[in-house]
Design brief:
The chain is α+β, with helices and mostly antiparallel strands and 554 residues long. It contains 15 helices and 21 strands. The relative contact order is 0.07. 31% of the residues lie in helices and 25% in strands. A hairpin with a 5-residue loop joins strand 11 (318-320) and strand 12 (326-328). It is elongated and about 130 Å long.
Length: 554
């Protein structure tokens, strides 16, 4: 079959055939054409026109000559059923010879493997070329295929067809797959590191119900440095932490891990939130001065019903009341950690029974097309209608703000609920306090008060005796070393008994070994021995609080 007429209808061939009759090749590339001025090498010399071979014109070559020498795979089909008209040598070498006149669906299974038949139908109908990249055949080779329409010749009664041009890109496809595999492994490593540095199981305080969600962003290996934490401080108080290290990848995750560890260490000192951030600010600059991190640190005290917090460049904490009203923590916000030169301060926001607090990172509310305040407002609207358990609220907030697996930033959310207890559950939570007035005579009054309260709470006799002993020792220590005002507080939850004594002196007691001849110095040692845990802290208005806890029998 002669394909000269077909070749005249391939895209671009008509334009080339219409060039100047003196040359079928553009003048810029006609290396053998003689200069119009006549200047050039004389006849008879090696590069003179007399010695040059004549340049073939396009009309002298058939489509078979051109297509047959291409290293790419070429097939020509015609008609709506794509009957085979021609395959070149490269195509036959890859898939075997193909009989002419047979529909491609029957004789060319490779087109089905490459999902090309529907594409060829579309090209034939629309007359528009289409290209698909990196399609894998059953042999394992990958091809980038271009399907080009060939117009029909009505004079000869020829139907339109499709020219299939397939370039072997197996090496490129395998290299791309290796790259994707490597990136996937790097991402898995980074995500594993990130998750291993986050709390594996959240602490659940007696007075709060807490849930958290972390989702790495995007599909690349560059996970971020978002983190959260819950730290029980003793005496019923709980520290809540949310933070975000700017940057991506393993480096950001490693800095995050160091900051989280430092926060837990500083929290054990039971310092006010702004002092914890002040210490963390200096440490962040030492860890990596190029990494900037934001952090919000809050402490919940069930006796006061408040959330005392401090923020280093972090987004505001949101609190939803029981009636659905959402409040934003509007207290002072300092610069991010690691900047130095700033004195952080603390603010307060009410967290009464029945309320829910949400701490979050910017990935939850920040969008490239919106101002971040709009995102925070959207979160407020979503929180106002979010009810249920903490994990349910987490999931609802993520859905409401359209956080999916393809989200382009890491997201960390910490939901804290202060449940309103009624009925039998409320009977397991009690508070009692006594102002310690006078001198040493306050000690026997404190012991009598503790005896009566613990008995009314129906504790076992041995636990009552230990509680009275601990209360007496703490009161005696405060009377001897502290200053007024003094107060004894007793609190029970469903899991522990808490005894706390406050006074106006800010010198914290420490446990020491008393010598046999010493008449004092054994009170804290006795408390530390009989109690489950004990501790002390400075109070915001000046003074200190010394406490101990007894775990209740299940």
């Amino acid at each position: 079959m002669n394909f000269t007429r077909w070749s005249a209808r391939l895209p671009g061939t008509q334009r080339r055939a219409a060039r100047d009759d003196h040359s079928a090749v553009p003048a810029a590339r006609a290396e053998y054409a003689q200069d119009e001025t006549g200047s050039g090498p004389p006849e008879g010399e090696p590069d003179s026109p007399a010695t040059r071979p004549p340049a073939p014109s396009l009309e002298d070559l058939s489509a078979r000559d051109i297509l047959g020498q291409l290293p790419a795979l070429v097939a020509l089909v015609h008609g709506p059923d794509h009957r085979i008209a021609y395959v070149n040598d490269a195509y036959a070498a890859a898939f075997g010879p193909r009989p002419s006149g047979v529909p491609a669906a029957e004789a060319m299974p490779e087109l089905t493997e490459l999902s090309l038949l529907p594409l060829m139908d579309q090209v034939l109908r629309s007359g528009t070329p289409r290209t698909v990249k990196s399609r894998k055949a059953g042999s394992g080779s990958s091809y980038t295929v271009t399907c080009t329409p060939v117009s029909r010749d009505q004079d000869k009664g020829h139907e339109g067809g499709v020219l299939v041009y397939a370039a072997d890109v197996t090496d490129h496809a395998e290299a791309a797959e290796r790259l994707r595999t490597s990136e996937r492994r790097h991402r898995e490593t980074a995500v594993t590191l990130q998750r291993s540095l986050l709390p594996q199981e959240l602490e659940q305080p007696d007075d709060l119900r807490i849930a958290a969600t972390y989702q790495p962003g995007g599909t690349d290996a560059a996970v971020g440095g978002d983190w959260y934490d819950v730290i029980t401080l003793g005496a019923g108080r709980t520290a809540l932490v949310i933070g975000d290290v700017m940057g991506r990848g393993v480096r950001a995750a490693a800095v995050m891990g160091q900051l989280r560890t430092a926060v837990r260490a500083y929290a054990r000192l039971d310092l006010p939130p702004h002092e914890v951030l002040q210490l963390l600010d200096g440490l962040a600059a030492e860890i990596d001065a190029s990494q900037i991190a934001t952090c919000a640190y809050a402490v919940h005290d069930p006796n006061e019903g408040l959330l005392v917090y401090s923020s280093a460049g972090h987004l505001p904490i949101l609190v939803r009341d029981e009636d659905g009203t959402v409040h934003r923590a509007e207290g002072p916000t300092g610069p991010p950690l690691g900047t130095g030169g700033w004195i952080h301060t603390s603010g307060t926001i009410a967290l009464p029974p029945g309320s829910t607090a949400v701490l979050y990172t910017d990935g939850l509310v920040e969008r490239r097309s919106e101002d971040i305040d709009e995102g925070v407002a959207a979160l407020e609207r979503a929180l106002s209608g979010a009810k249920g358990a903490p994990q349910v609220v987490c999931d609802r907030l993520m859905r409401s703000l359209n956080i999916t697996a393809e989200h382009d930033d890491d997201v960390a959310v910490l939901v804290v609920q202060h449940p309103a207890r009624t009925g039998p559950t409320a009977e397991l939570f009690h508070n009692a306090s006594l102002d310690l007035l006078g001198g040493i005579e306050a000690a026997p009054r404190a012991r009598a008060f503790a005896t009566g309260v613990l008995t009314s709470w129906r504790f076992p006799v041995d636990l009552c005796d230990l509680g009275v002993l601990a209360a007496g020792e703490l009161v005696a220590n405060s009377l001897q070393h502290g200053t007024p005002p003094m107060r004894l507080g007793l609190r029970r939850t469903d899991r522990r008994l808490i005894i706390e004594v406050t006074d106006g002196d800010d010198h914290l007691p420490r446990r020491r070994r008393a010598e046999p001849a010493d008449e004092a110095g054994r009170g804290i040692s006795i408390v530390a021995t009989i109690a489950t845990s004990w501790g002390s802290r400075r109070t915001p208005g000046g003074g200190k609080a010394v406490w101990c806890e007894f775990a209740l029998p299940r």
